[in-house]
Design goal:
six-stranded antiparallel β-sheet, TMEM222/RTE1
Length: 169
Protein backbone atom coordinates (compact mmCIF):
# COMPACT_ATOMS: atom_id res chain seq x y z
CA UNK A 1 0.00 0.00 0.00
CA UNK A 2 1.44 3.36 1.01
CA UNK A 3 4.42 4.18 3.17
CA UNK A 4 4.10 5.79 6.55
CA UNK A 5 4.33 9.58 6.63
CA UNK A 6 6.98 11.34 8.69
CA UNK A 7 5.99 11.68 12.34
CA UNK A 8 5.93 15.48 12.08
CA UNK A 9 3.05 15.32 9.62
CA UNK A 10 0.84 13.03 11.68
CA UNK A 11 -2.07 14.32 13.69
CA UNK A 12 -4.33 12.52 16.08
CA UNK A 13 -7.70 11.55 14.67
CA UNK A 14 -10.76 13.03 16.30
CA UNK A 15 -12.47 10.72 18.74
CA UNK A 16 -15.56 8.98 17.49
CA UNK A 17 -16.37 6.68 14.62
CA UNK A 18 -13.93 5.90 11.83
CA UNK A 19 -14.34 7.91 8.64
CA UNK A 20 -16.16 6.23 5.75
CA UNK A 21 -13.82 4.86 3.12
CA UNK A 22 -13.66 6.34 -0.38
CA UNK A 23 -10.87 4.44 -2.15
CA UNK A 24 -8.94 6.34 -4.85
CA UNK A 25 -11.14 9.43 -4.73
CA UNK A 26 -10.81 13.18 -4.64
CA UNK A 27 -12.72 14.33 -1.56
CA UNK A 28 -14.20 17.78 -0.90
CA UNK A 29 -15.63 19.55 2.12
CA UNK A 30 -16.97 23.09 2.65
CA UNK A 31 -14.49 25.71 3.81
CA UNK A 32 -16.42 28.16 5.99
CA UNK A 33 -16.89 31.08 5.48
CA UNK A 34 -15.45 31.02 1.94
CA UNK A 35 -17.92 28.36 0.73
CA UNK A 36 -20.79 30.48 2.11
CA UNK A 37 -19.75 33.33 -0.18
CA UNK A 38 -18.75 31.22 -3.19
CA UNK A 39 -19.87 27.57 -3.11
CA UNK A 40 -17.24 26.43 -5.62
CA UNK A 41 -14.53 27.13 -3.02
CA UNK A 42 -13.84 24.26 -0.65
CA UNK A 43 -11.21 21.96 0.83
CA UNK A 44 -9.93 18.94 -1.12
CA UNK A 45 -8.15 15.76 -0.24
CA UNK A 46 -7.19 12.45 -1.82
CA UNK A 47 -8.02 8.98 -0.63
CA UNK A 48 -5.49 6.17 -0.98
CA UNK A 49 -6.53 2.83 -2.47
CA UNK A 50 -7.40 1.63 1.04
CA UNK A 51 -9.71 4.65 1.52
CA UNK A 52 -7.50 6.61 3.94
CA UNK A 53 -7.86 10.33 3.15
CA UNK A 54 -4.84 12.61 3.07
CA UNK A 55 -5.16 16.40 2.78
CA UNK A 56 -2.87 19.42 2.80
CA UNK A 57 -4.30 20.88 5.99
CA UNK A 58 -1.98 23.81 6.66
CA UNK A 59 1.64 24.97 6.60
CA UNK A 60 3.98 21.97 6.54
CA UNK A 61 1.12 19.64 7.47
CA UNK A 62 -0.45 16.90 5.39
CA UNK A 63 -3.01 15.05 7.46
CA UNK A 64 -3.04 11.29 7.12
CA UNK A 65 -5.63 10.43 9.74
CA UNK A 66 -8.46 9.82 7.28
CA UNK A 67 -10.28 12.89 8.61
CA UNK A 68 -10.24 16.12 6.64
CA UNK A 69 -9.23 19.45 8.19
CA UNK A 70 -12.66 21.11 7.79
CA UNK A 71 -14.94 18.18 8.51
CA UNK A 72 -16.00 15.04 6.72
CA UNK A 73 -16.19 15.09 2.93
CA UNK A 74 -19.52 16.16 1.51
CA UNK A 75 -18.59 15.37 -2.11
CA UNK A 76 -16.21 13.05 -3.85
CA UNK A 77 -15.08 11.96 -7.28
CA UNK A 78 -14.05 8.35 -7.73
CA UNK A 79 -10.95 8.20 -9.92
CA UNK A 80 -10.48 5.53 -12.59
CA UNK A 81 -7.13 3.97 -11.88
CA UNK A 82 -5.37 1.02 -13.47
CA UNK A 83 -2.67 0.40 -10.87
CA UNK A 84 -3.48 0.92 -7.18
CA UNK A 85 0.23 0.68 -6.33
CA UNK A 86 1.20 3.39 -8.84
CA UNK A 87 -1.71 5.54 -7.64
CA UNK A 88 -0.67 5.19 -3.97
CA UNK A 89 2.94 6.00 -4.88
CA UNK A 90 1.81 9.24 -6.60
CA UNK A 91 -0.35 10.23 -3.61
CA UNK A 92 2.54 9.51 -1.20
CA UNK A 93 4.93 11.53 -3.37
CA UNK A 94 2.55 14.53 -3.32
CA UNK A 95 2.14 14.10 0.42
CA UNK A 96 5.92 14.16 0.94
CA UNK A 97 6.29 17.29 -1.20
CA UNK A 98 3.47 19.18 0.52
CA UNK A 99 4.55 18.23 4.05
CA UNK A 100 7.53 20.53 3.40
CA UNK A 101 5.54 23.45 1.94
CA UNK A 102 3.99 26.59 3.32
CA UNK A 103 0.23 26.70 2.77
CA UNK A 104 -1.09 29.67 0.79
CA UNK A 105 -4.87 29.91 0.51
CA UNK A 106 -4.72 31.44 -2.98
CA UNK A 107 -1.80 29.77 -4.75
CA UNK A 108 -0.35 26.68 -3.06
CA UNK A 109 -3.15 24.93 -1.24
CA UNK A 110 -5.10 21.67 -0.86
CA UNK A 111 -6.15 21.78 -4.53
CA UNK A 112 -2.47 22.09 -5.52
CA UNK A 113 -1.69 19.02 -3.41
CA UNK A 114 -4.35 17.03 -5.31
CA UNK A 115 -3.00 18.37 -8.63
CA UNK A 116 0.52 17.31 -7.71
CA UNK A 117 -0.63 13.71 -7.25
CA UNK A 118 -2.68 13.73 -10.46
CA UNK A 119 0.24 15.22 -12.39
CA UNK A 120 2.63 12.61 -10.90
CA UNK A 121 0.42 9.79 -12.19
CA UNK A 122 -0.43 11.65 -15.42
CA UNK A 123 -4.09 11.04 -14.68
CA UNK A 124 -6.15 10.85 -17.89
CA UNK A 125 -2.95 11.57 -19.84
CA UNK A 126 -2.65 15.07 -18.37
CA UNK A 127 0.43 16.50 -16.61
CA UNK A 128 -0.99 20.03 -16.23
CA UNK A 129 -3.73 19.68 -13.61
CA UNK A 130 -4.36 22.94 -11.78
CA UNK A 131 -6.53 24.09 -8.89
CA UNK A 132 -9.18 25.62 -11.16
CA UNK A 133 -9.62 22.32 -13.02
CA UNK A 134 -10.05 20.50 -9.70
CA UNK A 135 -12.47 23.11 -8.30
CA UNK A 136 -14.72 23.06 -11.37
CA UNK A 137 -14.52 19.28 -11.76
CA UNK A 138 -15.59 18.65 -8.17
CA UNK A 139 -18.23 21.40 -8.26
CA UNK A 140 -19.91 20.13 -11.42
CA UNK A 141 -19.27 16.39 -11.26
CA UNK A 142 -18.58 15.58 -7.62
CA UNK A 143 -21.17 13.31 -6.05
CA UNK A 144 -22.72 14.44 -2.79
CA UNK A 145 -22.64 11.93 0.04
CA UNK A 146 -26.23 12.75 1.12
CA UNK A 147 -29.01 15.33 0.80
CA UNK A 148 -27.86 16.74 4.13
CA UNK A 149 -24.48 17.45 2.54
CA UNK A 150 -26.20 19.38 -0.28
CA UNK A 151 -27.85 21.56 2.38
CA UNK A 152 -24.58 21.85 4.34
CA UNK A 153 -22.86 23.09 1.17
CA UNK A 154 -25.49 25.42 -0.32
CA UNK A 155 -27.68 26.35 2.68
CA UNK A 156 -25.28 28.89 4.23
CA UNK A 157 -24.65 30.43 0.80
CA UNK A 158 -28.36 30.84 0.07
CA UNK A 159 -28.85 32.37 3.53
CA UNK A 160 -25.80 34.68 3.16
CA UNK A 161 -26.75 35.98 -0.30
CA UNK A 162 -30.43 36.18 0.63
CA UNK A 163 -29.51 38.35 3.61
CA UNK A 164 -27.30 40.56 1.42
CA UNK A 165 -30.16 41.02 -1.06
CA UNK A 166 -32.62 41.86 1.75
CA UNK A 167 -30.24 44.36 3.35
CA UNK A 168 -29.39 46.15 0.11
CA UNK A 169 -33.01 46.62 -1.04
Amino acid sequence: MHSSPPLSSLSSPPSGPSPPLRPHSITWSPLPPLTWICPIIGHTGLAYSDGLITDFAGPYHVSTTGFMAFGPPTRSIKLSITSPQSYDTSVTHAQQIYSKRMHNICCDNCHSHVCCALNNMEYKGCKRWNMFMIAFWVFFQGKFESWGDVIKTFGPSVFFWGLIILITR
